[in-house]
Prior knowledge:
Blueprint: H1 6-20, H2 22-25, H3 43-66, H4 74-90, H5 95-117, H6 123-143, H7 145-148, E1 154-155, E2 178-179, E3 182-183, E4 187-192, E5 195-200, H8 201-222, H9 224-241, H10 247-271, E6 274-275, H11 282-295, H12 302-315, H13 322-328, H14 334-344, H15 352-366, H16 370-393
Antiparallel strand pairs: 1-6, 2-3, 4-5
Helix pairs in contact: 1-8, 3-8, 3-10, 3-11, 3-12, 4-5, 4-10, 5-10, 8-9, 11-12
Amino acid sequence: MFGLDKKDSTLLIIVALLTMCAPFILNPFPSDSGLAQFNAGYPDLMQRFVIFGIFAIGFNILFGLTGYLSFGHAAFLGVGSYSAVWMFKLLSMNIIPAIILSVVIAGLFALLIGFISLRRSGIYFSILTLAFAQMSFALAYSVLTPITNGETGLQLTLDDPRILGVSQTADGSIPVTNLFGLEMRSSFNLDVGPWDFTFSSGYYVCAIVMLLSFYLSIRIFRSPFGMMLRAIKSNQQRLNYTGLNPKPYTLAAFVISGMYAGLAGGLMASMDPLAGAERMQWTASGEVVLMTILGGAGTLIGPVLGAGMIKYFENIFSKINDNVLHTWFSFMPDGLEDFIVAIVHPFVGKGWHLTLGLMFMMVVIFLPGGLVEGGQRIARLFGRKKADAAKSAKTEPAE
């Protein structure tokens, strides 16, 4: 299907089903339940799941296939966001031109940075990309304020000279981003008993783009180009001895990865027309590294899983405060309740990074292949049990 083998087609179908049914899957608890705070089916968070999934998929093409660890990919995310907002200000509120410009500008920026950074490898390459990202952050924050609006961030105003659209609507407000008339913030609520499901136009647009990006990554992984990138990761020196120059391949992977980041930045601005310098900080680059390693570097679905887990922790797990903890342990005696809350408190709420750090340590130590390796181990365990059961049930002829 679509030029993929059976295994990859099955994986693509599974990801498509999970993505399309996300409003149901991410809202497992009734709205009036005490566990409703663990629901993640609201549009803004679902959009972040798929947008950062695109970001991680692109980063995985560079890091997972070639082994080149970049700490500067947030620069392309920020450049994509700025490009999209400028397109909204100058041309139209349609998201298609904005996304196209985001991908193109991010690709050109990645070509420039990659051409310089890829002259080195290993830790030197990582430091160079980090330096470029911090330079981009400093430029956006303080030097290029006429273009980026500095620390306030670039946003739409009522004075924007929009060529193919109005600067303000009939009621005097700023127009909404749209896809040929379909507003990105429009949504539909479905009430099924105590459950409340929200279907957002913006989410499904992002989800379709993510599926297309995921399909493209599969084709890259299975292509001769992808095999060459794996060879570079395996033993670049041996590849040099064969007479092949790996630099054009690594530069191409770097540019493709940067274009994915620009696409993610453009989608972020399309859902919320605002671009700030904070998207270029080194912490954003480190976040995508965590996503990829946590999910499984070099795997197809791993980065998407890692992005979903980190964004879930950031938006859901971080909201568990002392009041919630006291509600959970209210059945205990007062002294014991306070003791348990005091122990759990550093790991939730504002301390959610501690829990994430411990989880990351355990994954790196016990599951070097990330969450995907954990799933594979569980699958093999159940497969072995079934095989043992079938073997024991088999009747052996008497001798």
